[in-house]
Amino acid sequence: MAAPRRKAKLTHIDTAGRPRMVNISAKVETAREAVAKGSVFMAADTLSLITSGRAAKGDVLTTAQIAGIMAAKRTHELIPLCHPLPLTGIDVSLEPDEGRSAVDISATVRTTAKTGVEMEALTAVSVAALTVYDMLKAAQQDIRIGDIRLVRKTGGKSGNIELE
Fold first, then answer.
1. pLDDT of residue 111 exceeding 80
2. Mean pLDDT of the residues in the chain
3. pTM exceeds 0.85
4. What is the pLDDT of residue 1?
5. Is 147 among the catalytic positions?
6. What's residue 157's pLDDT?
7. How far is Cα 127 from Cα 57, in angstroms, rounded to an integer?
8. Residue 53 exposed, middle or buried by CB count within 10 Å (0-12, 13-18, 19+)
9. How far is 125 from 108, CA to CA, in rounded Å?
10. Is residue 115 a contact partner of residue 27, using CB atoms and an 8 Å limit?
11. Which of 91, 104, 134, 147 is catalytic?
């Protein structure tokens, strides 16, 4: 059974209920890392287009990997209240899983900063998944993206957290 969750204070809301960017100026810079994962589910025939290199738009896995890396770097431009961060490392991997007829995506993002990189890792996975969809939508319209989640974070005040 999971431990009860503490009541969270919504830090992106001011006392009047308006959105605000959190002031992190008093925080200490620490090494931080976040890992996110997700999957893109499709028909076996569609997955075989990836594994055989026959996708009409080209190399699906490499293109999605690059898209995920680029997205992590631009997270602060996509998510309104995210801080721009000096990212020191971004690893995005995509692995076909023929048994589940899926492409599994993992993103690890690192920085030394005053705030974490969870949103950057989640954005990398999301955009990589959307890229897989875009490159295969002509072959299959009902491709499903799912299970996008944070699985680990390290550094900062809350320390190391394993969610999976």
1. yes
2. 92
3. yes
4. 44
5. no
6. 82
7. 17
8. exposed
9. 9
10. yes
11. 134
Q: Which tokens in the block code for residue 146? A: 């799912």
- The Cα 49–Cα 81 span in angstroms is 38
Residue 24 near residue 114, CB atoms below 8 Å: yes
Tell me, what DSSP letter sits at residue 27? S
Residue pLDDT, tens place only, 2-19 = 445 555 666 777 778 787
Whether 136 has a pLDDT exceeding 80, the answer reads: yes
Q: Tell me the torsion sign for CA atoms 117, 121, 126, 130.
A: positive
* Spatial strand order in the sheet of 87-97: 87-97, 102-113, 30-41, 144-154, 161-162
Pairing type for strands 102-113 and 87-97 reads antiparallel
As given in the structure block, the two tokens for residue 107 are: 């993103």
What is the rounded distance in angstroms from the CA atom of residue 92 to the CA atom of residue 123? 11
Task: Compute the distance between CA of residue 162 and CA of residue 46 in angstroms, rounded to an integer.
Answer: 33
CB distance 22 to 12 below 8 Å: yes
